[in-house]
Amino acid sequence: MRSTFSILFYINRQKVKKNSKCPIMGRITVDGKLCQFSVREEIVADRWSSKEGRSTGKDKPDRELNQKLGQYEKRLTACYNKQVEEEAYVTAESLKNALFTADTGTPMLLAEFKAHNEEYRKSAGISKSKGSYHIYMQAYNNLVKFITRKYEVSDIAFSELQPAFIEDFESFLRFDSGFSANTAFNNLMKLYRNHSFFCIL
User: Fold this and answer.
1) Which residues partner with 5 through β-bridges?
2) Cα separation of 156 and 147, whole Å?
3) Which residues have CB under 8 Å from 108's CB, separation 6+?
4) Would you list the domain boundaries of the chain?
5) How far apart are CA 137 and CA 134, in angstroms?
6) What 3-state class would DSSP assign to 180?
7) Could you report the per-residue pLDDT of 109-149, keeping only the tens digit for each?
8) Cα(73)–Cα(88) distance, rounded to whole angstroms?
């Protein structure tokens, strides 16, 4: 029997930014259990239709936003149908993960970092330093916390990384996590040595 499944887009009116815009959120519900995610878009409240879950604006940015939301719906529906057919068990969390992980065929930052660390672990203490492995894992765990807190997603695509990502992550390490400048630098360097996103930003 198929689950009850729905997708809703809404704005978080409790987090109005300095530019007077509210972040747009998505909510997946499966059998009454929900999971939220950030669309990574924002809009002024008076240009948002709560009933439609779309922008009411007619300008190009509004049309592009609505198109993006429509694409999210199509991708989630496709993920839902695939999981029903192949796994016969679907949750809101599994759909969110499928949307933002390698299941979509998109290179994801945390997924690739995790895979690298797993390969490094096999050589730790043999041909590679155990100490370096621990720093790699520290960098990964801190990155998980940062992405979860800032973007409210379980992973982020390389294609969505912006230059400010590095500065924001460094700020998170220094001021939110309380690490010294040296520890923060080591975390960033481990990320740099594993991923070439510095070059594509």
Assistant:
1) 30
2) 8
3) 100, 101, 102, 155, 156, 157, 158
4) 5-100, 105-200
5) 5
6) coil
7) 888 888 888 888 888 888 888 888 999 999 999 999 998 88
8) 20
Alpha carbons 174 and 167: distance in angstroms, whole number: 11
Each residue of 85-104: b (16+ CB within 10 Å) or e? eeeeebebebbbbbbbbbbe
Q: Provide the residue count of the chain.
A: 201
Sign of CA pseudo-dihedral 185, 194, 199, 101: negative
Distance, C-alpha 83 to centroid of its chain? 20
> Helix, strand or coil for residue 3?
coil
Q: CB atoms < 10 A from the CB of 81, how many?
A: 13
Residue 104 has pLDDT above 90, yes or no: no
Q: Which one-letter amino acid corresponds to residue 145?
A: K
Cα separation of 121 and 137, whole Å? 10
DSSP 138-155: HHHHHHHHHHHHHH-SS-
- Please work out, in degrees rounded to the nearest 5, the angle formed at the alpha carbon of residue 147 by the alpha carbons of 197 and 161: 30
Amino acid identity, position 76: L
Structure tokens at 127: 């041909």
Q: Does pTM top 0.85 for this prediction? A: no
